[in-house]
Amino acid sequence: MSDLENMITAFQKGRAEYEQRKNGTLQGSFEVREIYGADDAQAHEAGRIILGNNLDYMDHICKNDKLGRGLQLIYVDPPFFSKSKYQASVVLQSEILGNSSTVKIDAYDDFRASALESYLQMLTTRLFFMRDLLSDTGCIAVHLDWHVTHYVKILMDEIFGRKNFINEIIWNYKSGGTSKKNFARKHDTLLLYGKTKQYKFHMLKEKSYNRGMKPYCFQGVEEFQDEQGWYTMVNMKDVWTIDMVGRTSAERTGYATQKPEKLLERIVEACSDPGDLCADFFAGSGSFGAVCAKMGRNWILCDESSLAISSEIARLTALQKNAGEKEDRMAGGFAVLAAKCGTAAKSDPDVRNAAKIFAEVSEDQVLLTGYEPPETVENCSSPEEVERFVRGDSLSLVAVWSVDFAWNGMVHRADKILCSGERSVQIPKGAERIHIAGYDVFGNRFAVFFER
């Protein structure tokens, strides 16, 4: 079939899958497994990190969760159908061994073995659910590049309605490859749609420099001057020039295809208000959640990759720690949920791996003493380098860990959260059921329980 025929078939199949799910009963459920800073997981809405298939989760909250139809903004950065393999970059840090060379970890394959029809069907089903989850004032921004933007725009016209199209935003950047056979491809596209004509939108302003950088002195026109010259403030255009996340950037996590916070800040500011609920169902490194947290929005992040979940937890907990703590539990906080819908063996943290953490628990302190990753660290570019750090300083592989001083046997409620390099924590008086849980730099989860 031609690509046009594939697109039509994909839409029909994707819509049929959506309708079957809507009319059927979803098997399984989602369970809260970890809570970082929140007092009540069931009432907590400030932040959720979901480990699981985003389609299963969207189906679940449409049917079972009060958050259904309550999202003000959905931003998604799905695979681009580039048919490439993407890797995350990790540098292990140790006071004993120094820094490692860069270790590459497989993050995800961008539909390497799939046909265009399969890719578009995958997106179609999910876009229908995203439409259902948006409030009547809600907006959705789908981030793509030249590979399939033209196909997906037609799908979104069908699902959201051409009349609800808002903007095709061009993100222009300097980084990326070049070729002798085409002009350098230096932009991505964000397709922005409203759920209805009553979508929420705040116009942003930007500088527009005068010709010759000199003042116009037009009556009624307010002009300003900076080090470059004279300018006026105008409504922001739909072409945005923003640098990619550089190698030395403070926000860089090393996760593949990480997007700059400045780009996401514009979307969040334009299409939501403080207190609104926003979601990213292809969350990756967690940039969208970090931006929402900084800007006072509630957020949901969902990803099927345990490596992504590890990165998100480390990033959001570090952000909240830097914002300060209130008494014993951190201000704000978020819950981590594990998927149980059809992919439990792959998604459940306790089933997924065999990583081990070792600790000593004294009267007043928990001290980490060692870490043992799964027998084989899969999809790693430098297994010898990783093994050197395992032998010489195994705790350098720990990305984030936390302690629950009153574990209830089911949900890990993090009283203290510690990032890479922190290896001990004081125990409060009366603590008897001590549960340690965390993630390593490869996305493996570990946990151990001590009863005193």
TrEMBL record:
Pfam families associated with the record: N6_N4_Mtase
UniProt xrefs under InterPro entries: DNA_methylase_N4/N6, N4/N6-MTase_EcoPI_Mod-like, SAM-dependent_MTases_sf
Keyword Iron: no
Domain DNA methylase N-4/N-6: residue ranges: 72-305
Phosphoprotein keyword on record: no
Lineage top rank: taxon: Bacteria
Gene Ontology MF annotations: DNA binding; N-methyltransferase activity
Gene3D superfamilies reported in the protein's UniProt record: Vaccinia Virus protein VP39 (3.40.50.150)
Entry keywords, A to Z: Methyltransferase, Restriction system, S-adenosyl-L-methionine, Transferase
Biological processes, Gene Ontology terms: DNA restriction-modification system; methylation
Name under which the protein is recorded: Site-specific DNA-methyltransferase
Organism encoding this protein: Lentihominibacter faecis
